[in-house]
Amino acid sequence: MYSIGLALLLAYFFGIFGADKFYLGMNFLGLTMLILTLTIVGLIITVPWSFVNIISLLVAIFIGSVNVFGYRSIKWNRLNNFDYFAAIFVGALTIAGIVFLIRDRVNGNAPELLTSDPDDQLTERLRKSAQNVLYLNPSYHLFNKYFNLPTVA
Length: 153
Description:
- The chain is an all-alpha fold.
- It has one domain.
- Helices cover 66% and strands 0% of the residues.
- Helix 1 (4-14) packs antiparallel against helix 4 (43-63), helix 1 (4-14) runs parallel beside helix 5 (81-107) and helix 4 packs across helix 5.
- The longest helix is centred in the middle third of the chain and has 27 residues, at 81-107.
- It is flat.
- The protein starts with a helix and ends in a 6-residue tail after the last helix.
- The mean pLDDT is 79.
């Protein structure tokens, strides 16, 4: 029996590495996500994949269901206060991150998006791509406000 709240927290903070899949015993899917993420190009696949996992876990907690899309074979514990706290925490972090994202866009502090200039070298494109992945993560903005996180150089 697994905690849906813990799976949600793992998916939110380490989902692109497949941490929630490893926790739930879905080792092949976890390893697939980990390998794709480490290839950098695979982030195009793992970022939306982990986003869908987070949304499905959040919705399952808020509607009180343990029948979660993508996790149908998992035997979940009954929902408890920790699960609701995890869902509220992840929801609040996401909303705060979106507010900071919008603020940065309005103030013109958004990073330069990846260009299709043929003169750019592959390493520069990968650096910008990694920077954009960090920038689009809502929790990055919240933590950056208080801890001044480093940017991708």
